[in-house]
Amino acid sequence: MTDPISIASIATGSASLALQLGQVIHDLHNLSERYRFAELTVSSISSSLETVQFSWRRIATILERWTSDEVVFQDDAGELFAQLNRSLKAGSLVIAALEEDLSPYKDVPERRGPVIRRRAKVVWNEQVLKGHQERVRDQAISMNLLISVLH
After folding, report:
1. How many Cα atoms are found within 13 Å in the side-chain-facing hemisphere of 144?
2. How far apart are CA 129 and CA 146, in angstroms?
3. For a disulfide at 56, which of 13, 18, 22, 116, Cβ 3.0-4.6 Å?
4. The whole model's pTM is what?
């Protein structure tokens, strides 16, 4: 599993997940402006996502460098790359679940001007977001550990 193609595949996946995280961070920023009462939770999730995004970009950079350099891997390199793959999959699942739960809030039209619109049938669920907050925070901690192992 330490061949350049496998390393490049993980690097590409890392960069792709970082891009996806960027979109979710942008969406969270927009939601924090719209739902002021949830600003603390949304900002906390966003901050942790920025850490995870930075970590995946850093991992992608490190792995891209490894594909172009002559790197001698330790005996446990296969385990390292298997862990990176598992982390990529877990990160993708966490982000997909977050995106799914944020979707109803993004679709609510903003109120502008004196026009009265029908009330949206969306109720803010702080408990659901707190669950996401914990999972994202766990991802951030895991990513920091992975980066320390890569150096």
Report:
1. 9
2. 25
3. 18
4. 0.77
